[in-house]
Amino acid sequence: MSLTTRLSVFFLAALAVVLAGFSTTLFLLARTYLHRQVDERLEFALETLSTAVETAPQGVEWEPDERRLSLGRDDGPEQVRWVVCDSHGHVVDRSRNSAGDDFLLECSWRMLSDPASFHEERSQGVPWRMSQRRVPEFIPSGERDLRPVVGSDDAERREQFYPALSLTAGMSLEPIRVTLRNLAVALSALSLALWLLAAFFGRWLCRRALAPVSEMAEAARAMGSVERDHRLPVAARGDELEDLGRAFNDLLNRLDESFERQRRFTGDASHQLRTPLTGMLGQIEVSLRRDRSPQEYRQTLELIHGQAGQLRAIVESLLFLARADAEARLPDLETIDLNAWLRGHVAHWAEHPRAHDLRKEIPSNEPIWVRVQTSLLGQLLDNLLDNACKYSEAGTPITVRLAIGADNATLVVEDAGRGIAPEDLPHVFEPFYRSPRDRQRGATGIGLGLAVARRIATALGGTLEVESRLGEQSQFKLELPAGVCADRR
Ligand code: ADP
User: Fold this and answer.
1) 20 to 30 A from 80, CA-CA: which of 28, 279, 340, 371?
2) Ligand 1: which residue has its CA nearest to atom 26?
3) Top mutation candidate among 379, 381, 418, 420 for ligand 1, by most atoms within 8 Å of CB
4) Domain spans, the chain
């Protein structure tokens, strides 16, 4: 199911529930209100009829003329109808609009035996609301007689005194039923129209809003692995989809850069491997052209040995770089005192031609605990010292400085050599990068020393950074997380 359909279904279902709830509530409120209005009108009618009943010591008297009773003259279905009976059920008086209709009288009798103030009755399928009041309260005699008490003359009825009278008023609920039916039809039609409108525009809006997703998917499908410069189309809409498109394009840019780096790396690696191999093959071919003296064979083998050593160093560096990529941190680290280790390691450089230029700056004999692999840390420091010797003049100082911070140890290798040009600085840690000036000068090297050194620093959980001023000095700073002796494991 598409996202558009899922979103539309959810919102349309929610809208249907809201519309149904709203319409039902409105309908129920209207029904309650209209029924309450009927009850109020019946109450008012009974109140008006009560004012026409005179109470005297000999009984109660029905006096409609004195109160000018105008209730129940109109015939409309929404009009109140009423009847006044004595305790035997004889009709004393009735509204003009109920003349000839015995339904009201029968209801009046039924209500005499059932003292609830409001009743629902039915006449030919039409519901009626009835209400009754007795003046004074009395118990009905049980006899029923449709005849008036004394003749049908108004004057005669008026002069009568009765022990008690029952006043009954009723209203047809048909007008309310019609009104409520119309309201239900109007609410249903309105809700349906609103729902259909929302369905149409909602779907259109969803499609429009999600169109960039389809376009991006289409563009992504059309992208081949060869055309690496293709990117997703991103419309400047300032929404999440623009954000997604830009993020994805940034990812493609990064992948492209990484792909390019890998390609360069492979090219450089094969070139670097090819050079000593070609040299070795050349040496062998020249030696094989004719018979040579043991002395000459020995010389050739020594040359080949030197080139094979260089080849092995390159292959080992490449293997380390490839492995360090996969394993970000090394598993079997040991805790050592960096202070003591550094003194011991620098001592190995005593036989080096630049040994007299090497200086150690170690603040105290306090142990500095770090977790490392000593062979890798040794290789890192050797690479830095090797470069310092290579890129500075003999007689200039090379300083190895150790410092301890709050939670890290810093090892600095500084030389007062030719320095690194600002444009070379961002690249010196890239594999096979060599500054063009040093290439021209014919400095030996293949450009893997610093790349390997930084990978080692990362694998040990530290960082390796460089600061340099061209023609003045270079400073390589290694920072390693330091702990206390208790951390030793
Ligand atoms: P290389 O085998 O060329 O020395 P590295 O990876 O060790 O390879 O160094 C990369 C480049 O960084 C070098 O070619 C050189 O230009 C520059 N470089 C490294 N160390 C120093 C230094 N101490 N002083 C000046 N330049 C340096």
Assistant:
1) 28
2) 420
3) 420
4) 3-180, 240-322, 328-481
Residues in contact with 12: Cβ distance below 8 Å, sequence separation at least 6, in sequence order: 195, 198, 199, 202
Distance 61 CA to ligand 1 centre (A): 128
What is residue 142's predicted lDDT score, i.e. its pLDDT? 56
Interval between CA 447 and ligand 1 midpoint (Å):
7
| CB-based contact 80:110 (threshold 8 Å) | no
* Overall fold of domain 240-322: Helix Hairpins (1.10.287)
Distance from residue 405's CA to the centre of ligand 1 (Å): 28
**Spatial distance between the Cα atoms of 308 and 276, rounded to a whole number of angstroms:** 7
Which residues contact ligand 1 via a Cβ below 6 A? 387-388, 391, 415, 417-420, 428, 433-435, 438, 445-451, 474
Q: How far, rounded to the nearest angstrom, does the alpha carbon of residue 107 sit from its chain's CA centroid?
A: 66
Residue 92 neighbours by CB distance under 10 Å: 22
Which atom of ligand 1 is nearest the CA belonging to 388? 23
**Token pair belonging to 298:** 């020995």
**pLDDT tens for each residue of 208-259:** 888 888 888 888 888 876 667 788 888 887 888 889 889 999 998 998 888 8
Q: What is the pTM of this model?
A: 0.53
Pairing relationship of beta strands 165-172 and 126-135 according to DSSP bridges:
antiparallel
Q: Structure tokens of 27?
A: 């309908």
Phi and psi angles of residue 31, each rounded to the nearest 5 degrees, phi first: -65, -45
Neighbour order of strands in the sheet with 126-135: 91-94, 81-86, 165-172, 126-135, 118-123
Pairing of strands 398-404, 358-361: parallel
CATH architecture, domain 3-180: 2-Layer Sandwich (3.30)
**Within 10 A of 93 (CB to CB), how many other CB atoms are there?**
20
Residue in 317, 327, 339, 334 with CA at minimum distance from that of residue 458:
327
Q: What does each C-alpha distance from 73 to 41, 129, 359 come to in angstroms?
A: 15, 18, 125
